[in-house]
Amino acid sequence: MLEKIHSPRDLDGLSYEQIEQLAGEIRRELISTVSVNGGHLASNLGVVELTLALHRVFHMPEDKVIFDVGHQSYVHKMITGRYDRFTSLRSYGGIAGFPKRSESEYDCFETGHASTAISAALGMARARDYQKEQYEVIAVVGDGALTGGMCYEALNDAGNSGTKMIVILNDNEMSIAPNVGALSNYLTNLRISAGWQSAKRKVRHLNSVPLIGKPLYKTIHGIKRLVRSVFVRDSESGFFEALGFAYFGPINGHDQAGMEKAFRQAKQYKGSCVIHVLTKKGYGYEKAEERPEAFHGTPPFYIETGYRIDKPSCPSWGHMMADTLADMSETDSRIVAITAAMKLGTGLDHFGERFPDRLLDVGIAEEHAVTMAAGLAAGGMRPYVAVYSSFFQRCYDQMLHDVCMQNLPVVFLLDRSGIGGEDGQTHHGLFDLSLSLPVPGLTVLAPSSSAELVSMLQWTLTQDGPCVIRYPKSMKECGTQQGQDFCPARWTAMTEESSVLLLSAGSMVPVAMDVYNRLKDEKINTTVVNCSTLKPLDEAFLAAVPQTASVFTLEEHMVTGGFGEYVSGLCLEKGYKVPMYCFGVRDQYIQHGDHGHLMKDAGLDADSVADTIRKLLKGA
Ligand SMILES: Cc1ncc(C[n+]2csc(CCOP(=O)(O)OP(=O)(O)O)c2C)c(N)n1
Ligand SMILES: CC(=O)[C@@H](O)[C@H](O)COP(=O)(O)O
Ligand SMILES: [Mg+2]
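# 1-deoxy-D-xylulose-5-phosphate complex -> structure
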């Protein structure tokens, strides 16, 4: 049936039986494509019925739906005219893993970073009202995304605005890992209390059964009061209602008819409302139901076993970081590790296994994570905040105002820095240097090997100020020796002296080594320099560069505001007249696809870098 669905209106005439059949086909397609391309499987398996119900009750694209994070939009893509391209999901040139306005009129707002949908939906609803139009605006928000502070800023504004919008809260009790925090407890209480209501109805029914009914009813009633006093507490106090939203639910998110009924009610309702839908992450694929964390974002895997196809040959940088931090914590009780709902992705699960009390998962709340870290540091602890480079964009002011202005010893561990890959535009880590290099007193480091990362981490404990360490998920190692003490602001030449300097940052050091080898074969000598400290610069090194040299800087970052510009700024200031060219990403958003293709497009792979250097040297 799926190939006959070219637009959501093709769903209209289908019976519930046919919809069930279609849901099965969608799940098979999700599993088969993601098993080859990788992607966000468990979340999508959980929202098949929800998405079908949305599209049957509402009339997209006139009505607008915004998916928070957007990683659960695959089903939406399949039934909005993109099924024929679905096997290209997340691949270079293929359809994106997140909503894209350029891809379809059904993708009305782009997402990727969590907790934005309610704000965006309120904006769109206000635009509708200003323009005196009539359509519904719906935000689909997960319970994980609801741990992000922006949601509350938006609810606060929306609930007092008189502007109608609908929030569908997709509650599967999971962020990437099991959800955390007091609000997650509140949602659990709503579930318990709803379960309780239906249990209560059943118990009342028992009471009417002669003889056995009454004593059993009394016993259960006693247990009920006890359980309620322990668990339920304020669950019916109506948090959403207090904020000006009507609350419908909780409803079973795998019951098609029930959900459609609730959505119709919300459509008819005059004011704003929250529909609380309960779903199961990974629903319909046993392996994902059993291990929803592993199937949140999965690499390609075997469908039969659920095991990933390529086993990583070495530990990730994140695990290397977390193991080192745990080793350091054996002798330093001040160390605390902080994650904003990315315990697994950042590798901090390893730290948590050894120091569960010193790993703080604050939910999807990067801003809070950083200011809370500042508080910990001000109180005498040594906080390490592990966060993906692109999510670090969220906490710029907290880093600047709360940590750095007070010169507090908070270490920011920026994973996934550089060009990411299949997640695309929203997830590349290409702006963190522009954010951190201008900040006074902030040391900025970029290891070129995992061994260097270890020695940098050990060095941070000897310091009293803030520090950023940026590193990618994985990269080719280039043989920096293990066990060497880290020397800040000291760059090291990795190849013989020459008049062509390749000043390379972090992940570009191995690329520069490849460039060196290619050009050497052509009798062009270059010197690869490992610039592991990006701030402060190695001023002594730069002062010694002869005017006859040619300098190239290499970084996996935007050129504007990056390392190369920082170096050239210093050279200008000091009056060093060296010809310089900066390799990096130039004024564009990088799309999705495999890392190799994207690096080539940005002119940052070894072949492209070597070509450019060759041309520039000839022209010089
Ligand atoms: C600002 C930000 N921080 C972290 C993430 C990484 N992330 C993506 S999805 C996710 C969990 C979302 O949970 P939920 O909203 O409940 O969706 P589910 O996958 O359970 O459907 C996290 C932490 C992100 N996308 N954005
Ligand atoms: C949707 C989202 O933001 C995360 O799930 C992200 O895709 C994780 O990336 P990694 O797979 O690199 O951990
Ligand atoms: Mg969830």
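# post-check
The longest helix spans residues 182-207.
Confidence is low (pLDDT under 50) at residues 196-212, 221-235.
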